[in-house]
UniProtKB/TrEMBL annotation:
Keywords: Oxidoreductase. The keyword Oxidoreductase applies. One of its GO terms (molecular function) is oxidoreductase activity, acting on NAD(P)H. This is Alcohol dehydrogenase-like C-terminal domain-containing protein. It comes from the Eukaryota. It comes from Fusarium oxysporum f. sp. raphani 54005.
Length: 221
């Protein structure tokens, strides 16, 4: 989803405290990057310079408690035929708007449908552009929705900038977050076996569908 730099580390970008009136939506929250998205969102909610007041997430019912434990305020069943209505109704009930969504895995069109409901949510503006960051590649035949900007999340194509981004994301942000316990490795790993002989077994299990777990093949001590 792209980890936002802490403004505390960038004093020149001091934006002051902002009104917290948004819910951040993480779609596919039980996937590896989805769980990280939930945890990142939780930290953003604590930042007085972030507009987010809550984290909404989608996942299968069996994983709802786990996703809540990572920091999601509300979790919705992505298989529910009324999931879009449930999410938008919850936001209105909480007096929040949804203008940002991170698609870790799942259907792009459902995320667009949620964001579309909040394109005209600001009385001060005739139309507000909402933003959807997608981890999966965006299909060529994906429909354009007026007021919903969709981007494929990827690092900079410029090598110097890309290395600088990864140095911050991994060497600074994640390293610090893991050390102080504000972020924990997720989801829980499942060790398939030890040795390269287990690679095919791991791939077979992955092809059958894996939910809220990382498959691990150990290759050394």
């Amino acid at each position: 989803m792209g980890v936002p730099r802490s403004y505390d580390e960038l004093p020149s970008q001091d934006l002051g405290q902002v009104e917290k009136k948004e819910a951040l939506l993480i779609w596919g929250a039980s996937s590896s990057i989805g769980t990280m998205g939930v945890q990142t969102g939780r930290l953003m909610c604590k930042d007085p310079k972030s507009p987010f007041a809550a984290v909404y997430a989608t996942a299968g019912p069996a994983n709802h408690d786990y996703i809540r434990s990572l920091g999601a305020d509300r979790v919705f069943d992505y298989k529910d035929s009324k999931v879009v209505k449930s999410i938008t109704s919850a936001a209105k009930e909480d007096a929040l708007v949804i203008r940002h969504c991170f698609l870790a895995t799942g259907q792009l069109s459902l995320c667009q449908a949620v964001l579309k409901e909040f394109v005209h949510s600001d009385p001060a503006e005739s139309k507000t552009t909402t933003k959807l960051g997608s981890a999966p590649w965006i299909p060529a035949d994906a429909q354009d929705v007026d007021g919903v900007e969709v981007i494929f999340v990827m690092p900079s194509a410029v090598e110097e900038k890309r290395l600088e981004q990864f140095n911050y994301w991994i060497g600074t942000y994640l390293s610090k977050a893991l050390s102080n316990g504000s972020v924990k490795p997720s989801p829980e790993p499942t060790v398939v076996g030890k040795g390269l002989d287990f690679l095919n077994s791991a791939l077979d299990r992955m092809s059958q569908g894996v939910s809220c777990s990382k498959l691990v093949v150990e290759i050394g001590e």
